[in-house]
Every structure is written in C-alpha cells, then in structure tokens.
Amino acid sequence: MDAKMKKELITYGINMEDTLKRFMGNEELYGKFLEKFLHDDSYNQLKISLQEQDLGEAYKNAHMLKGVTANLGIDPLSKVVAILVEDLIVAKVDRIEKLMKDIDKKYVDIINIIEKY
C-alpha cells in the first residue's frame, strides 16, 4: 500500500493505526484483504434481497457486510450497516431506504479508493 492510498483511506475514515493491529502491522497484507473486499458479494446480495423484500436474507447479508467491513476497519460503512442490521432484526423498515442511500454512497466511495490503487 502506498502513501497516497493510505492517506485516502484515512481521509475516508479508516483508523489505520487500529486496523493495522489486526493485520500485525503489515500494510501489504491489509492491502491484499482490501483487494479481496472488491470481490465480496454481501453488498450485492443485500441489495437483491431488499429488492425482493426478503428481510431475513437482507439481515443475513447485512450482517456479513457489517462483519467484513468492521474487520477491515471500514468504519464509515460498517457503522451505517450496523444500524441497518438492527433495524432488520426488529423489521423496522421505515429507515431502510434512507440507510441504503448512505450505505450505497459509502460503499462506492471505498470501492473507488481501492480500485484506484
């Protein structure tokens, strides 16, 4: 991971110091896991399950996305997905559309950063 990518990730909201602890301080290893995130399908599956109004499947996919993003330190996205997970647990559907707009933006932002490098 080069300095420009690291700076963009920090600007996005990743606490690089804490996150790198999970990767034994190895920036290259962390970069490889970020690259693997590009192929994680939980976001796409979440969108599909919400379109199909399958809240059980949406919960499963949101929970997976929350876990992956939390482990990678993608906190801006993880925190919003965590709210969605809680809403899906209690079938509180009135905020889902608003939350998904925020999730969509944060997801696209992090994907664009990763793909740039």
**Mean pLDDT, all residues:** 97
DSSP E strands, number: 0
Order of helices and strands: HHHHHHH
Radius of gyration: 14 Å
Estimate percent helicity. over 70%
> How far from one another are the termini?
8 Å
**Beta-strand level of the residues, as a percent range?**
under 5%
Unreliable residue stretches? none
User: Count of helices?
Assistant: 7
Q: Quickly give the structural class.
A: mainly alpha
Question: What would you note in describing this structure?
Answer:
The chain has 117 residues and is mainly α. The protein is built from seven helices and no strands. Helix 1 (3-12) packs antiparallel against helix 7, helix 4 runs antiparallel to helix 5 (55-71) and helix 6 (75-89) runs antiparallel to helix 7 (96-116). It starts with a helix and ends with a helix. The model has no long low-confidence stretch (mean pLDDT 97).
Short description:
The chain is mostly helical.
Helix and strand arrangement:
Blueprint: H1 3-12, H2 16-22, H3 27-37, H4 42-51, H5 55-71, H6 75-89, H7 96-116
Helix pairs in contact: 1-7, 4-5, 5-6, 6-7
Write a concise keyword list for the protein shown above:
117 residues; mainly alpha; 7 helices
